[in-house]
């Protein structure tokens, strides 16, 4: 069944009066990987922050327009914490919290009060780490500090942590910036599997990554959503806007 | 091809000269410290003994020990900490984690920093007005401790604030994105990592509270008392004031006595600072990112 998981209408974001993203309207379908490409400073990260209502934590960030998730306006969610628990986020730079590997993954369920028994939690931690393709490397040192793992491992730890809250939506913000190519490929394989269970928004600065993974791709440029289309079409030179062709063709950005 | 040019040589010489200047500065700086501590040890150590630490002063304070003063200082420090630490850390958490960045917050920050520079005698007079007279605590341990607390509060706030700020912001963002509330984030991630810094700041204030004379002189410390305090509403003797008294106010005191008192006072302060450094090193070895 194809339905819209996220519907964005006339979304505009500005910081202290300076517009970062304007007039974006798009839909993200259930169980698709929705790619967002575009050069730096084009409003990609701001878009993600608006989806999980992080503007609440940033006093100078103003958001207008609407974001509906599961058909419900995110602004009408009384409990934004429950909203954020439905959305896992992975950052450009890996953030291994200075807790043990185990506690990093167990933190979200514990905070949400859904941790359950020790055995349940053990099982959850193992499952999340396995799905993030990290279990084999850390199973013998679950009580080591997560912040001392290598960069690539920390990024997979971040993914495991994002999965621990059983999210319906996974948002990745340029996850491969600080990660070696081998780890990047492993994470990409993980994403292809996760797609069956959740909706994924993949913000990436690597055009080819969007090509490999995304079902549909949006091109953001200077705070404007230039074009949204099936990824195949964009990469077959069927983009409607010349700027999209130029960016994908490597003429700028 | 790797020979040094004229510019290289000059840079090298300048660098050597500056290294020497800084080195000399350092030596000049530590000379007074060495002189003070060695004088105290040489002149004060003959009077240090168990009876000196654990008996009352006798014969018009020219003989005997310093137990009531030592006991009183510990009382004052503990009660002032009970007031200043919860208050100071809570204020720092508010300023660092909750307060919006607006004019009011900046004014509060500025006021806090300036408050740290207010002379202790002014704090003393404030203590007399507020705690002794207005709240009617009388001259008591409570009044003196609260005065010390007010004096140490700004530094506790500033040092705690700095420790909280040193926890990287991405940690907070990661937690918020997980659906954690601000308080859950503070409790689970920010505070555990700021703990060492906060603790160090607090312990450094302990040594300051133990050493100050002016704030307690009018608010709760007595020159001589024939009994130990039973509650926070009693007056007490205190080491810092006792040192002032035996050094200047009492005739015919043997020379080693004030030095002995001073040595105990400095000893307590140094001990506290050492504990702070030790805790810091110990915990820092464990927590890393």
List keywords for this structure.
heterodimer; A: 253 residues; alpha/beta; 6-stranded mixed beta sheet; 4-stranded antiparallel beta sheet; 10 helices; 36% helix; 27% strand; B: 289 residues; mainly alpha; MetI-like fold; two-stranded antiparallel ribbon; globular
Helix content of chain B: over 70%
As residue ranges, the low-confidence spans of chain B are none
* Major beta sheet, strand line-up of chain A: 6-7-8-3-9-10
Q: How would a crystallographer describe the biggest sheet of chain A? A: 6 strands, mixed
**What characteristic shape of chain A results from the CA principal axes?**
globular
Biggest chain pair interface: A-B, 30 and 21 residues
Poorly predicted runs of 5 or more residues of chain A: none
Spatial separation of the terminal alpha carbons of chain A = 36 Å
Average pLDDT score of chain A: 88
Q: How many strands appear in the DSSP assignment of chain A? A: 10
Name the helix and strand elements of chain B from N-terminus to C-terminus, one letter apiece: HHEEHHHHHHHHH
Number of helices, where a helix is a run of at least 4 consecutive DSSP H or I residues of chain B: 11
Number of domains of chain B: 1
Tally of contiguous helical segments of chain A = 10
Proportion of strand residues of chain A:
25-35%
What is the second-level CATH architecture of chain B? Orthogonal Bundle
Rg of chain A computed from alpha carbons, rounded to a whole number of angstroms? 18 Å
The CATH superfamily of chain B is known as MetI-like
